[in-house]
Amino acid sequence: AQSVAQPEDQVNVAEGNPLTVKCTYSVSGNPYLFWYVQYPNRGLQFLLKYITGDNLVKGSYGFEAEFNKSQTSFHLKKPSALVSDSALYFCAVRDMYDMRFGAGTRLTVKP
Amino acid sequence: EAGVAQSPRYKIIEKRQSVAFWCNPISGHATLYWYQQILGQGPKLLIQFQNNGVVDDSQLPKDRFSAERLKGVDSTLKIQPAKLEDSAVYLCASSPGTAYGYTFGSGTRLTVV
Question: N or C: fewer beta carbons within 10 Å in chain A?
Answer without folding.
Answer: C
